[in-house]
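ok trying this again, last paste got cut off
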Amino acid sequence: MKNYKGLLFILAYILTIPAIYAQQGEFYQFSLEKETKVRGSKIYFEGFTNKGNESQIDVNALAKPGIDIFYYTYSGVKAKKIQNHISWTTHPLFEEVTNASEADVIIGGSYLIKTSEEVEENLYFEKANSVGGAIPYYETRQINTAGINVLITYTYKDKTTDYDTINIQFDSERKPGKKLLPVSDLLAKCESSLKPGFYNTFKFYSHEPVWYKFLSVKVKDKTLKEELSSAKVLFESGEIKKLGNLYQRIYSAEPDNKEAAFNTAMCYELIGNYAKAQEYYAIMPDFHAKVRMKQNQILFDYLNEIGANPIVEDF
């Protein structure tokens, strides 16, 4: 009987564990990867002009998806059922304008496609021997080449400029046991490499999945306790501001409830209000939150520095 009671206690303990971290989700953590040459929030895409005779690659069609990285509505969440967060990434940080005179920066430039089919016939001599002199012989070498050079120009409101470049080249040489690729195939390889080339040039942030786990909160107030029963539903439906408002009211009513303060901080972090998040995290410090917040703040400060448009919200 004694063992039976002990088993019941262990089972009860195990069954309560999921409730402790019932609210958890895999969010994207955004970080600054490198500086961007974009300044301001309004961008005009002028397009790229061909500086050569060959035009087998539609450079502007390949460039546009890369430039669109500035206009996309970013999603900061990967977890099932949870919708777009962080809040300032749920709307475009940059705006595409249709008139160059309205733009903070004009993105354009030029490109040059080069192809060649070179055949070289070289004369060589075998080493001389005691019987006779060196015997001449010819070797033919063929190399096909295709490449594209793109000059990206950023023109700002004050008429100053900055530049980026993308250089791609593929070669194929005729060798025993190796197929000589035609120029058309090498151009196709250039084309398939150019789209990610634009994307990687314009991309200035990186992201990785991070699990956010809310703490278990005990509430004395009956009304707030009843409201707290909806916390899991609010979290899974992406109602982070409503959830944060709930935890904030619990902490206001019970100032010794540090778990409610921590969850309030986490909700502020998830909507991108880092000033408020820091304020509430200070009540119950956490190393992992501190590391995340440092990365969050670096990217957020940089966006403001370059004149992007992060919108800070409250509950």
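PB: full thing came through this time. Confidence is low (pLDDT under 50) at residues 6-21, 76-84.
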